[in-house]
Design brief:
single chain; mainly alpha; two-stranded antiparallel ribbon
Length: 109
């Protein structure tokens, strides 16, 4: 990529981040690798990797009718991230090169 294209893309990204109130810290938190603590997590912070015996907290939740998928961590989404979607009037998503990519996804957890 030539230097002008690179500079242009950086300027575009800075403008879009400013439009949505995204800080560099928000972006870093979103792109950080997910902790290897587990594949499933409860609301109380208990986790399970999916290997070995199923923990009691998850057995109880499933027995109570909850789906195991409810506790599954989404790949590429950092739980507790400070990045949240912000409504911006007049946002034009059809020209956004990141729409549908991991950079466009946020978590409301």
């Amino acid at each position: 990529m030539d230097e002008r294209k690179r500079d242009s893309m950086i300027a575009y990204l800075r403008r879009r981040m400013e439009d949505f109130g995204i800080t560099p810290d928000d972006l870093a938190a979103t792109l950080a690798p997910e902790p290897a603590a587990g594949r499933y997590r409860s609301a109380h912070g208990e986790s399970w990797s999916g290997e070995g015996g199923m923990p009691q907290w998850l057995k109880q939740a499933i027995s109570a009718g909850q789906s195991i998928g409810h506790f599954e961590l989404s790949s590429g989404v950092v739980s507790g991230s400070s990045l949240h979607a912000r409504a911006v009037t007049g946002a034009d998503w059809k020209n956004d090169p990141f729409a549908g990519s991991p950079l466009a996804r946020t978590s409301s957890r």
